Amino acid sequence: MSKSSTSAILNSRKNDLLQNWIDNQVEDPSLREDLMTNDEMRSQSEELLDAFLEGIKSDNFEDISRQEFNTINDILSGISLSRAHSGFTPRETSIYVLSLKKAIIRILQEELKDAPDQLVNEIIKVTTLLDSLSIVTFETYIKGREEVILRQTSEINEISTPVIRVWEGVLALPIIGTLDSERTQIVMESLLQEIVDTGSTIAILDISGVPAVDTLVAQHLIKTVNATRLMGAECIISGIKPEIAQTIVHLGINLEGVQTKATLASALKHAFTKLNLVVGKRKNY
Length: 285
Fold this sequence. Notes:
The chain is an alpha/beta fold.
């Protein structure tokens, strides 16, 4: 005659199960105490355990898409996203669920030690369920990390394209790193908006920090220059290194009509000339 079901056993030993689970998490060497307090860990674990014990009352250990697992899936997804955003690693997040499996098996071993066949069956059922929940955890974590990476990429693109007002009527935009379609769009939008805000008539695109220029990059630059012209401003491309100049010639890229300079200083000098400004050293008397 079989003993009580896994659901009945775990619900009757809930406090022991929770403590075992928390102990397993605390004992794990990868635990990040700087990212979560013990009180937060206990609160999260207790909430998830309550949902888990409620879910298995139906004796469903295989299909986590059914209604009885909606709550635990929601809680688990929320925890995984939160941990992904907080900086937890995939291992640390997976350990959270896998350590629950270890705690459950320990309770089952204590309660079913005289029923080895039933113990094996119950462990297989629990393992199947927790493996499925681990996959949910991992998939949600990956989704959360992708969101973080996309947000950081967007922030880096914005930070790496600062429009600087170097003089009255003169803007400079130093570009560092690879120039792709997304960055070009940010460069263009930032530059055009700054031209509107400042009323500047000259904009300098400095590509000293761009490692290479190919046909696509050149097309992006020409589009930016043309858009600047439509705003009534002149755009100068500076920082064209010898190897980049050779590449442009080799590729047959036509920069006719585009003002180019080898250095930012040359571009500034050209801008001052266009604005009838004279900058020089003051004589010592």
